[in-house]
Prior knowledge:
By secondary structure, this protein is of the alpha+beta class. It has 22 helices and 17 strands. Strands 7, 8, 9, 10, 11 and 17 form a six-stranded antiparallel sheet that branches. Strands 12, 13, 14, 15 and 16 form a five-stranded antiparallel sheet that branches. The radius of gyration is 29 Å and the shape is elongated.
Amino acid sequence: xxxxxxxxxxxxxxxxxxxxxxxxxxxxxxxxxxxxxxxxxxxxxxxxxxxxxxxxxxxxxxxxxxxxxxxxxxxxxxxxxxxxxxxxxxxxxxxxxxxxxxxxxxxxxxxxxxxxxxxxxxxxxxxxxxxxxxxxxxxxxxxxxxxxxxxxxxxxxxxxxxxxxxxxxxxxxxxxxxxxxxxxxxxxxxxxxxxxxxxxxxxxxxxxxxxxxxxxxxxxxxxxxxxxxxxxxxxxxxxxxxxxxxxxxxxxxxxxxxxxxxxxxxxxxxxxxxxxxxxxxxxxxxxxxxxxxxxxxxxxxxxxxxxxxxxxxxxxxxxxxxxxxxxxxxxxxxxxxxxxxxxxxxxxxxxxxxxxxxxxxxxxxxxxxxxxxxxxxxxxxxxxxxxxxxxxxxxxxxxxxxxxxxxxxxxxxxxxxxxxxxxxxxxxxxxxxxxxxxxxxxxxxxxxxxxxxxxxxxxxxxxxxxxxxxxxxxxxxxxxxxxxxxxxxxxxxxxxxxxxxxxxxxxxxxxxxxxxxxxxxxxxxxxxxxxxxxxxxxxxxxxxxxxxxxxxxxxxxxxxxxxxxxxxxxxxxxxxxxxxxxxxxx
Length: 586
């Protein structure tokens, strides 16, 4: 796969199925209005968050080199992030949760490189570079938190999803895109909202992925730290939202001590959160994560683990007590007394040991699926994997011997042993048969005419998780989201406004501009009477220059906008207050 993005060693080591989500950050696509939105949000956030955010936030801004004045470039961020052992990549909006978390496991921060529109300056349901770059990046400069993020990704990407989880992901992605796009018809948004509501109310029992996503939301995205009485902000969703960062610190938002029960508290990505969770410190986050992981199929395995994989209708892996890993789409399990006694994969399957595919056991060889008994032989306390060479000989389990192995649960394997595969400790991983018949009672599971039969060896399933054991075993470069982010529309009016923003920025940077500040104000107030942000910037420059006449006109114009547009009154007021406060500090 040809890389068309800035890379570094951390990005280079990403597997191909993750690289498929990376897109180039086209920095030239950011418009002067985009830059003004970034500047407003960052100035407001840094001013406010210096009082309410965790100490790591401001320190992290300095360490990661994120500039208040300009949208960061991935190339510049990666140069600096490299020093703290991380990297950043650009993607298109939401990507599937498993992939998002797997990036974290590789110490790579996923950044949606689009930026919110001016109309959604306070909050956008769609991920954007303000949320990712100004929210996530600064906090990972804290080593303890960065390790939590990496560990969360490592565990979270193994969480098993339900078949409906992906439907919900696609529905939320579409809704976020439609809400962020300009001029989306209300009926389209309503239809998308109804679909999200329907899916959220009909998910059935929450999957591992749904529950660990809740933990991610209430910590990484919307977490508070400290005490319930005096919390500080560290969650990226709060750090990047000038509206919710203030709202969350009021008594209108309930503060709860963080614990594993947060895994069962769902969230609505399109609305402000009614409650938030407070962790005493970053170390406690890892304790809760480990508590959750101990309940996952990843660590428990067993019958429940294989059943979760079957219900997911997706690629997954089980690991047996011998260390043998079977990866494929699991479609059936035969159980006996609460234990799995036979497992079945349909379609391409691969066998691995320690995340490395076994030679001769890839998807080309197991193209039609794979089935095997699991457990002990009937009436024998010693499992095959624990048998010594003498034991194996006693039970006729050796090359060239025709044998019938009767497992607990009425599974029989009859055939001639060809050979076996052992792990580095000498434990048998697989036994290969010819002229083999496998039955469960009267049901035939494998017939001699089907060819060679490979039987897995393992007395129990010790782990079950999402995805393959060896990422190179399967072609996973196949995900194309059904929806794409919608770019801002271009019009003569928008182009003129962008030109005015560009010239005001040039004036602020003491660079040659095509018009004067006074002319810029005349054009924006006359031709774009509803735009407020540029006039705030003009007022800032007029104030800095001591141009009281222009400042007064700009403030009067902003008052008239407040009358027409009550929804932006607080944004204008906050912008002016910030200008005046900064001027007093000079």
